[in-house]
Amino acid sequence: MPPGKVLQPVLKMKVDELFLCWLSESSTQAMLRDCLRRIQMPERGAGDAEQPGPRLAAAAPDPAWRPRECEGPGAPGPTPASTALPVGAASSARSGPPVRGPRRSGGTRVVQTRKEEPLPPAASRSIPTFYFPRGRPQDTVNIDAVITKIERTFAQFPHERATIEDMGRVAKACGCPLYWKGPLFCSAGGERTGSVSVHKFVAMWRKVLQNCHDDAAKFVHLLVSPGCSYLVQEDFVPFLQDVVNTHPGLAFLKEAAEFHSRYITTVIQRIFYTVNRSWSGRITCAELRRSTFLQNVALLEEEADINQLTEFFSYEHFYVIYCKFWELDTDHDLLIDAQDLARHNDHAISTKMIDRIFSGAVTRGKKVQKEGKISYADFVWFLISEEDKKTPTSIEYWFRCMDLDGDGALSMFELEYFYEEQCRRLDSMAIEALPFEDCLCQMLDLVKPQTEGRITLQDLKRCKLANVFFDTFFNIEKYLDHEQKEQASLLRVRGGDGGGRWGMCGGGGTERLLGDTAPCSACRPQESDSEGPELSDWERFAAEEYDILVAEEAAGDPWEDGYEAELSPMEQKLSALRSPLAQRPFLEAPGSLGAVELYEYECGDDDLPPS
Ligand SMILES: [Ca+2]
Ligand SMILES: [Ca+2]
């Protein structure tokens, strides 16, 4: 491409993706570190010692040594791909070799003088393949043997055609997890004709095996629409509908068809919340590969109790989110406005923050957003972020909200803007608030930003106490909660001497939220009473809320003990689910709301600009 020509959005995205992939290779990073080290330390050896970076200043020299520039003495053989890439990338796009590595002294001159020099073609020919968007090819896969196995399976079906019910056996013949059956069926065109022929299926699967070399690549290929390389929300609908239709843990949902779409919407939002780390609305192979999603899909097969799969599929988690929304959405049109959302958790969240959520900083529903409303899909993001402020997505969510000017850092002004309302609210509760300066002091001590006066996303992710930080600025209830826990732990540490409380000491001192000796209760591992892995804040919240909701239902219609005692544990679990479900009024929601609701993206919206 000629220099100066603007890249088309799709192409640009591809190039960015390629660049990021290259940049994240460990060999690239080793090479860059090496280059950096050599910039910082004048090279020892040969005659270069007195003249750091002389080769840069010599801007138009012999092209023969130029491509080796980055390799240097310190980075020999083992990283050929990464050292070669800049050369290879340039050969197609620009007319001269780029001088990577040290640029400090001669950057502009290099750019000017490299016009006429063509790249030595030999350099690019020796670049080994280093980028495998569809996984690394494996020599061990015997495609013909797999195909034979599939044909043998199809031979058992009438007319060698498989219906969706047969697809479990076909998935196993393919060596796939059971719940890939839906995508396999759809990808072979089954949903149009009701069944797939052996020929069509084998042709489809052969192509997948030839082109896709790992599970992530295969799964993406099966779900995407033709010609697309990333997953959008809609792509998950047929897969999830099949899970709803056939997973034993969701059998009780079968008759409640109007509920399927709500469950599917919730799971899709949770998938994008966790997997789509780029916030682009497009899940790439690389993102899928980095996530635990496919492991969870595989677990669907082994785990009959879907509530054990708390990361994406739990019905209980869906139930909690939907009930919370239902409480706020009083007219049940599946949209809520700022007043509705403010009622969440008894007005715990500040008005300023509610306004920011509706400003479009983190929501995607462009159409409804204009009318000052957010959708159920947006609410899923909100609730998970609100109840677990320690995950990367959640920290990004609240950071976007607090970064009023969108400059990528929280300034003291932005902190004061939010804290001011907290003070007023504490006042109205007759609690003396800490002056902003003291609060700031505590927070800076807690976050320890790398640059003074600016708190970045990285600072918050690193500090492990982002929840305490955020709650201090916009959630009065949780702020007081943290404070109470902190006080209790300080009292314990000090042997109960009753010494000054931190926090609400009323401006007298600037006692720190986190002393050097006493880790905050929020960051200490919870003294859990059960074995097994520690629950996340979200999992703990969902489990507690679910118990409360079920108890509320039970109070309305008490179970007879004798009846319940006869049920197996599994049946009890299902009854517990059925009971509230059957009684919740939203079961009678009009059918028109049954469509899966997805949040909207602007076209080519790669990076959400905070407004
Ligand atoms: Ca409403
Ligand atoms: Ca800012």
TrEMBL record:
Under PROSITE patterns, the record lists:
EF_HAND_1, EF_HAND_2
Give the record's keywords alphabetically: Calcium, Metal-binding
State the Gene3D superfamilies in the record. 1.10.238.220, 1.10.238.230, EF-hand
- Domain EF-hand positions: 390-425
GO molecular function ontology, one term from the record: protein phosphatase regulator activity
Residue ranges with Low complexity bias = 52-63, 80-98
> What residue spans carry the region label Disordered?
43-131
Q: Which GO terms describe its cellular component?
A: protein phosphatase type 2A complex
Query: Which InterPro entries does the entry mention?
Result: EF-hand-dom_pair (IPR011992), EF-hand_13 (IPR041534), EF_Hand_1_Ca_BS (IPR018247), EF_hand_dom (IPR002048), P2R3A_B_D_EF-hand (IPR048855)
Tell me the function of this protein: The B regulatory subunit might modulate substrate selectivity and catalytic activity, and might also direct the localization of the catalytic enzyme to a particular subcellular compartment.
Put simply, this protein is called Protein phosphatase 2 regulatory subunit B''beta
